[in-house]
Amino acid sequence: MTSHPKSDPSAPACRTCSKTDCSAGQRRSNESDADFADRQKLESRLCRIRHKVVVLSGKGGVGKSTVAVNLAVALMMSGSRVGLLDVDIHGPSIPTMLGLEHHTLGGSDGEIAPADVDGLKVISIGLFLPSQDDAIIWRGPLKMGAIKQFLKDVAWGDLDFIVIDSPPGTGDEPLSVCQLIGRLDGAVIVTTPQRVAAVDVRKSITFCRQLQVPVLGVIENMNGFACPKCGEITSIFRSGAGKSIANDMGVPFLGSIPLDPQIGEACDSGQAFVRRYAASPTAALMRTIIQPIAALT
Description:
By secondary structure, the protein is an alpha/beta fold. Helix content is about 35%, strand content about 20%.
């Protein structure tokens, strides 16, 4: 039988904080020494991150990664220390959006150094691939293991926010994030105006409720076309789905983002739109949208 060392109630639970009641210091029943040490390492990372926000959508192609990148950069521009974690294992797009396709990760002593984009700390499975054409062909346990490593072994340091970009749906990746982190400050739900997107996006809100994750609000992306010459917004799809979802399901509506050609240009050039085109009306809308999230501090 394995002998469990007694914990000193007056000692800090881990080496990164002075809390004596931290759950990292309490061994769970039937927890091995290795599992206990592993969990302590994970929780010692997480306790240095004040707010954890996940970006979700039940539908692909709604611009969720674009929202995640610009949310993270806008929070950083407001003075917060921010990390961006891409847990889209099969379709990581964050490296392309931030110009990190050829970035080489470093690290030492068992730690992984995240990529640094003007102060924004970034990790994505795409940064580990020898070629951007390589495919990840993994089932659930391998994906959860990778996400755990991103949280546990990456030297995130002290952050005000970590923004987590999830793949579409309510499967392995968002479930792993919720299980590993334990307590998320909330989820931002992204939709587009069409009903076919809204039907699936509602499932993301149900997912959050079942896992007791607060919904910070719904963002309706691609709500009309913003003319690059005059700035006038012309409806392409039927608008209002985001607000309708929020009203029907009793969650906040954060706002709408138009389909702006400069957003696509910024993403393709590896720069965050909200920073490159900070003076544009669409960037101003984005900054307004993130205010309730920034207020978490």
